[in-house]
């Protein structure tokens, strides 16, 4: 008896559910995504540790210098959805490699720009090109990794993001001790080039990707449908407020460290070692979710972020550093939990769901991160911290609602 062709195809698809943990391809995949995160986030925040120096040397305000970060994250946010749509036709791997390669080339040009206006414009272009990396990385993992191992793989990818963010700040900050800020930017871009080359060499070929004909109406419909799902919409808002608060703190904390506590530029750069807390917590978040559930996890992490942020209002360097460590760990665990939850809730059109989450994530980084500069510039530090605590209370309210909705679904 002959098996119908459609049934044979279904059987084949069922047999292969994705790359499983413990295999050679799994190691290649997670290390490739780790390198992608290192390269992308090295470039994304390479000017953040240089903000106090650029403000002083270029004679600009902290809010203006912060535009070298916000321009990149803002343009990335605008282009992340188009990049995701292109990946539906041309493949996640092709978009990932092209995006990262072009962004690295722009990064190598940054040290040559003559003034702050040109730097902001070029950083905006870098954001456009970088958009393809976060737009498709999580989707690539959701499609190619076996469902039971997605949480672990996603945690490693987020860990790569945190280490990339760390090196993107530490490398230029350290180089400031021996050279000027343009060469510091060059050092960061060279590091991104090395990480990008590793990603290209290791990334396995896709087996589960099925190209689609690009249909703008369908893509728009898929995204609006995700917004009509209350749990997804709340996760999108969590990304906006959470990332906006996180970047706001790190954008302006360096000024506080130098002006109030008298730290040097290299010591201010060393503060970004706190990112290692996020590297560890993002890989451990999955175990916490398995133990207490998604809803209780996001509530606990939101409360931890509020408490640690409030502690940073205390005028003591060591308390500030401890609080920053705890806050950073909680934020990246929250991000890992929320992004992993997206892949579970969105059972179809996952690329669109991931891109919408990341769109909100980077819009929050750009808009809130830049807007918080006005609070920092015109109000005392304690008021600035109060503003960030207020934003985090919004995250907590959303987390409580998410937990209630998850309980009803279950």
From TrEMBL:
Q: Where in the cell is it found?
A: Cell membrane
SUPFAM superfamilies in UniProt: MFS general substrate transporter
Residues spanning the membrane: 29-51, 63-83, 95-114, 153-172, 184-203, 232-255, 261-280, 292-311, 317-344, 356-375, 381-403
Which InterPro entries does its entry note?
A: MFS, MFS_dom, MFS_trans_sf
Q: Which residues form a coiled coil?
A: none
State one molecular function term (GO). transmembrane transporter activity
Instruction: Cite the entry's keywords alphabetically.
Output: Cell membrane, Membrane, Transmembrane, Transmembrane helix, Transport
Q: What Pfam families does UniProt report for this protein, alphabetically?
A: MFS_1
Family note:
Belongs to the major facilitator superfamily.
- What is this protein identified as? Transporter
Q: What organism does this protein naturally occur in?
A: Corynebacterium suranareeae
């Amino acid at each position: 008896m002959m098996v119908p062709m459609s049934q044979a195809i279904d059987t084949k698809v069922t047999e292969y559910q994705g790359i499983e943990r413990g295999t050679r391809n799994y190691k290649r995949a997670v290390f490739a995504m780790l390198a992608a995160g290192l390269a992308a986030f090295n470039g994304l925040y390479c000017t953040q540790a240089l903000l106090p120096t650029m403000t002083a040397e270029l004679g600009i305000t902290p809010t203006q210098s912060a535009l070298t970060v916000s321009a990149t994250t803002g343009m990335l946010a605008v282009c992340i959805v188009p990049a995701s749509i292109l990946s539906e036709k041309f493949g996640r791997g092709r978009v990932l490699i092209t995006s990262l390669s072009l962004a690295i080339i722009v990064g190598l040009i940054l040290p040559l720009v003559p003034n702050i206006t040109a730097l902001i414009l070029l950083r905006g272009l870098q954001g456009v090109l970088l958009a393809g990396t976060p737009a498709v990385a999580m989707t690539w993992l959701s499609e190619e990794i076996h469902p039971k191992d997605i949480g672990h793989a996603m945690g490693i990818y987020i860990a790569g993001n945190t280490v990339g963010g760390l090196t993107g700040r530490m490398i230029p900050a350290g180089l400031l001790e021996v050279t000027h800020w343009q060469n510091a930017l060059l050092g960061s871009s060279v590091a991104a080039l090395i990480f990008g080359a590793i990603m290209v060499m290791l990334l396995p070929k896709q087996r589960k990707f099925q190209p689609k004909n690009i249909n703008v109406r369908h893509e728009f419909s898929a995204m609006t449908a995700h917004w009509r799902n209350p749990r997804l919409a709340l996760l999108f808002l969590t990304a906006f407020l959470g990332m906006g608060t996180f970047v706001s703190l790190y954008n302006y904390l360096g000024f506080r460290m130098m002006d109030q506590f008298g730290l040097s530029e290299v010591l201010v750069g060393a503060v970004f070692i706190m990112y290692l807390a996020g590297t560890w917590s993002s890989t451990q978040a999955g175990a916490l979710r398995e133990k207490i559930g998604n809803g209780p996890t996001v509530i606990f992490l939101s409360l931890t972020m509020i408490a640690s942020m409030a502690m940073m209002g205390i005028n003591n360097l060591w308390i500030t550093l401890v609080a920053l460590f705890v806050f950073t760990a909680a934020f990246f665990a929250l991000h890992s939990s929320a992004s992993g939850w997206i892949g579970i809730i969105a059972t179809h059109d996952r690329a669109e769901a991931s891109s919408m989450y990341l769109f909100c994530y980077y819009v929050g980084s750009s808009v809130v991160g830049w807007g918080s500069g006005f609070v920092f510039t015109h109000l005392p530090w304690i008021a600035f911290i109060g503003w960030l605590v207020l934003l985090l209370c919004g995250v907590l309210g959303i987390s409580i609602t998410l937990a209630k909705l998850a309980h009803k679904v279950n």
